[in-house]
Amino acid sequence: MSQRINLNARNRIFAALGTDAQTEAARHADAAGLLANLGQIRPPIDSSDLTAAFIRAATASGRVTSVTTIASLSELPGVVRRYIAANDLQDVIVLQPWPELLALDWQIPTTTSIEPDSLIAVSIARAGIAETGSLVLSSGHHEPMLFNFLPLHHIVVLDAQTLCAHLEDTAATIAANLDNPHAITLISGASGTTDIEGVYVHGAHGPGYLHIALIRAT
Fold first, then answer.
1. Which of 106-120, 147-161, 182-196 has the lowest mean pLDDT?
2. 3-class SS at 26?
């Protein structure tokens, strides 16, 4: 009897999925209606200063995220060294194997091999979202996905010129700058959870600390 009931429920679900209650033209019309009123359905963002909006969202309470602004990528090693000193860290820095990262004058031990117990890793974000303070990271030859999940401290470089106001605005940026990435990862602050008795624990499923080196727009 139980099996028959389950089969009936399954059949009803598949029957509903196969019912096209709305024509394709009607669906397109609904989508166009939403796009025509984006200002009413999306949070307002000051497009004249996306950098300030991004920093406010990224450093909101509970994010365990800090931001440093720099003029160029050449300042990144200094940012990383100061971060290490401020947090009393002692370890090899793991770099994404981007040529532009490897060419910098680090003055500290570096590697490109990410491990489960890596303490500090440095990545490059492809875009940022001002609305949520989120980073958009790709995966590929120079961007191993494990950088987003294994290190305790994740330092991410973001060029302010790649900032988008809203999440959906990143689609054009991704399409224009990425060549069929394996995956896209959105990072909104350090990893955290309140699953156990409602107590917030950061670093539960990924990096416990996130530091963003934001290259100012010129």
1. 182-196
2. helix
DSSP-derived 3-state class of residue 186: strand
The yes-or-no verdict on residue 36 having pLDDT over 90 is no
Residue of 174, 191, 192 whose CA lies nearest to 183? 174
Verify that 114 and 51 share a domain, yes or no.
yes
CATH of the domain at 155: 3.40.50.10420
Domain with 92 in it = 45-215
Q: Which strands, in side-by-side order, build the sheet including 127-129?
A: 163-164, 127-129, 134-138, 184-187
Asked if residue 166 and residue 58 are part of one domain, the reply reads: yes
Query: CA of 108: how far to CAs of 92, 111, 117, in Å?
Result: 7, 10, 19
Give the model confidence (pLDDT) of 64-103 as tens digits. 899 999 999 999 999 999 999 999 998 899 999 999 999 9
Separation of alpha carbons 127 and 130, rounded Å: 10
Q: Which of 198, 192, 185, 194 is nearest to 210 (CA)?
A: 192
Give residue 22's pLDDT: 59
CB-count exposure of residue 153 (10 Å: 0-12, 13-18, 19+) = buried
CA distance 165 to 146: 27
Backbone dihedral angles phi then psi of residue 50, each to the nearest 5 degrees = -65, -30
Confidence of residue 169 (pLDDT cuts 50, 70, 90): confident
CA 59 to chain centre: 14
pTM, two decimal places: 0.81
